Amino acid sequence: MKKRLAGFEELVLLATASLGEEAYGVTVQQRLEAETGSAVALGAVYAVLDRLERKGYARSAWGEATPHRGGRRKRMFHVTAPGLTALRAMGRIRSRLAQPIPKHA
């Protein structure tokens, strides 16, 4: 059985992919809020990032501790090859579904 992306999972994975080397919980949250115009709970972002890791669509690693973070490290995320494949598949599905949408209301 294929692992499917739920709507918010897809958005989190897209934001993570778009951020590249700068993807960690707060930056993913900020990107989602900027693009959707809605508040996004940081806890929800981390819950989805954890789920995406379990599905094999994302990986995380701890970055170096930095003085401006009080010596704390960031948990950095990146999209895996299966994650990119899932995003492309969702893009194709969305494109096919959008075909009958009329241009004028």
Mean pLDDT: 91
Which class of secondary structure composition applies to the elements? mainly alpha
Which CATH architecture would you pick? Orthogonal Bundle
CATH topology: Arc Repressor Mutant, subunit A
Radius of gyration: 16 Å
Shape field: globular
Largest sheet, if any?
A: 2 strands, antiparallel
CATH secondary-structure class = Mainly Alpha
Structure summary, number of beta strands: 2
Percent range of helical residues: 40-55%
Task: Give me the side-by-side strand order of the main sheet.
Answer: 1-2
Portion in beta strands: 5-15%
Q: Specify the number of helices.
A: 4
Parts with pLDDT < 50 across at least 5 consecutive residues: none
Q: Please give the domain count.
A: 1
Q: Assign the CATH superfamily.
A: Winged helix-like DNA-binding domain superfamily/Winged helix DNA-binding domain
Distance between the termini: 39 Å
SSE pattern:
HHHEEH
Note down, in words, how this protein is organized:
The protein has a two-stranded antiparallel sheet. The longest helix has 18 residues, at 81-98. The protein has one domain (7-98): Arc Repressor Mutant, subunit A, CATH 1.10.10. The termini are far apart. It has 105 residues and is mostly helical. The model has no long low-confidence stretch (mean pLDDT 91). Helix 1 (7-19) crosses helix 4 (81-98) and helix 2 crosses helix 3 (42-55). The protein contains 4 helices and 2 strands. Helices cover 54% and strands 10% of the residues.
